Amino acid sequence: MTDVRGLAARLDGARRERRAIGMLSASEPKLDVPTAYDVQRAGIELRRTSGERFAGVKMGFTSRAKMVQMGVDDVIWGQLTDRMLVESAADVASLIHPRVEPEIVFLIGRDVIRPADVDTAVAGVAVGYEILDSRYSDFKFTLPDVIADNASASGFGIGAWHGPRDVSNVGMVLEIDGRVVQTGSSAAILGDPVRALRAAARLATEAGIVLRAGDVVLAGAATAAVPLPANAHVRVTGAGLGSVEVTT
Q1: Neighbours of 224 (CB within 10 A)
Q2: Any idea where the Fumarylacetoacetase-like C-terminal domain is (predicted)?
Q3: Which of 45, 122, 127, 238 has the fewest C-beta atoms under 10 angstroms from its C-beta?
């Protein structure tokens, strides 16, 4: 039987000690997707025991190309905590190999008891970013490995909230130190970020998690992630949604 708590502790130790480890699947050949989500859940519980609070969910593999690359036909997801929220400065020195990507973010305005509730539960949308940091050496992993590692979640930032609106084709730009490093469209997120939002509601509900007022959903990346260096200024802009900035 797989030692779920032991694997979660191994990943949590790697995160806290800024130490890359080998893939769990290398020593746990029976690590499958359901078990990986159990490991993820145990890892979040470790963070909760240290005082962190659930803040929402993040979606992964929301581009068709990434699904094909990983050999999957569904998105993955991870959980966000309040301590992952970045206000204005990100401490990349505490991370192993950080990357950043532009996101569309949804604000939940009322409890989502059933997946069908989510379409009318959105209170706002914003441009945002996610900071990724795989705990595995060389940022290499299998599908169960990345799920166990909470979908590489590390940090996130959110720009100003706007009322619910069509975000199916928002032009997005990622700049580092004034230089454009990625451009794309929110259409890269499953064709429409709302599809990722619905998937988030479905997966959360299946896991027994209720998305509540104030929680957020990071719908997925509009472009590929890029390395996030130290002593940098990052800005993500979304057409009609303004921008969000962070320094490292």
Answers
A1: 16
A2: 98-246
A3: 45
As a three-state string, the secondary structure of 98-167 is CEEEEEEEEEECCCECCHHHHHHCEEEEEEEEEEECCCEHHHCCCHHHHHHCHHHEEEEEECCCECCCCC
What type of residue is 207? A
Sign of CA pseudo-dihedral 12, 17, 23, 29 = negative
End-to-end CA distance of the chain: 42
pTM of the model: 0.94
Report pLDDT digits (tens) over 83-100: 999 988 999 999 999 999
Q: How many CB atoms lie within 10 A of CB 6?
A: 12
- Region of residue 51 (phi > 0: left; psi between -120 and 50: alpha; otherwise: beta): left
